[in-house]
Amino acid sequence: xxxxxxxxxxxxxxxxxxxxxxxxxxxxxxxxxxxxxxxxxxxxxxxxxxxxxxxxxxxxxxxxxxxxxxxxxxxxxxxxxxxxxxxxxxxxxxxxxxxxxxxxxxxxxxxxxxxxxxxxxxxxxxxxxxxxxxxxxxxxxxxxxxxxxxxxxxxxxxxxxxxxxxxxxxxxxxxxxxxxxxxxxxxxxxxxxxxxxxxxxxxxxxxxxxxxxxxxxxxxxxxxxxxxxxxxxxxxxxxxxxxxxxxxxxxxxxxxxxxxxxxxxxxxxxxxxxxxxxxxxxxxxxxxxxxxxxxxxxxxxxxxxxxxxxxxxxxxxxxxxxxxxxxxxxxxxxxxxxxxxxxxxxxxxxxxxxxxxxxxxxxxxxxxxxxxxxxxxxxxxxxxxxxxxxxxxxxxxxxxxxxxxxxxxxxxxxxxxxxxxxxxxxxxxxxxxxxxxxxxxxxxxxxxxxxxxxxxxxxxxxxxx
Length: 465
Description:
- By secondary structure, the protein is of the alpha+beta class.
- The protein is about 35% helix and about 25% strand.
- Helix 13 runs parallel beside helix 16.
- The longest helix is centred in the first third of the chain and has 15 residues, at about 75-90.
């Protein structure tokens, strides 16, 4: 009876299980897999690697176990059936103990080192599709790897076309089966080559996947020289792979370890990244902006230097804690249909209202003839109504507008409304070159010394006159 070994690799868990079973032309089975796993995959793998014993029962022999590929003719089946029965041997209901752990190269999953198969080499004629490179836009999904440990002294005497197959395994949500023909799958090769083929077992069509196969050296390291890779769109139950994977004489001469030839095969299902759905940009700001423009449903009005600004209490309260306290608290403004706002420029109030509704800031060209002055008024309004985001934006914009003419007034604004970063930028500007000498004669600098004489001491520390 021929010994067939299968090792299920679990890359995610970093564990490897080796099972030995006696089967006629069958590799691995579901019951052994379940027993190997124990109570859970991780627990079973751990126990197996630690040396716990488990049992693998030989599955009941069926005609399918000895059959040729489904693409073979009935005559070929009849011609080889008797020889296959004699070569494989009799039954027996015994179970085999779990084999000892073997050395597996830690880099066997480095598929990028595999040599792509030559176009058309060792392909089955039943498949007209050709291999193709794996495009960059494809996303790799699930991968499964199997290792075949074949007793070469026995399998090399099998009939041409007789295969050893894995149990169905899952990769990428599909079931697959790998078949190894120790003496090849084609008569015209005269039994000189080992064939490695894979088939899609589940009822699926057009499944794109990578099929990898390579050998282990005698010392258990991966041998990339005869390694092969193909990318193929698989159809159900059609075998695909390499009829001339490697010469049997090469296996016998270079790759046997204790009489075993070890083939590692992997199926990596890939799928194209779905075309991204075009999403329009958020437009809630546009809708709320139109609500502000047409004053539909407005329930409060603000008077700023004689100019009226209708608004909505709920929107203002949602954006500003100051407006919330003023419009829904115990203050008198809570019941007033019109509220007069002092100490703020109408243009600045208008920009502030639009920012509250749309969260958008106007372009510099919309800030008037003096952007620095408008930004200072707007920063003051943002500080007054606790609009922190608007205040930060104004501060950053003012940094861009620092000049000899504006640095004094901007520094006053920074000190008044607690903008430390803006203040430091202004002090740095004073310390550069001749900026201080020129800015000292501006009205803004005079106001600065009047309102914050303590800043003169800070300037003396930084400025070299």
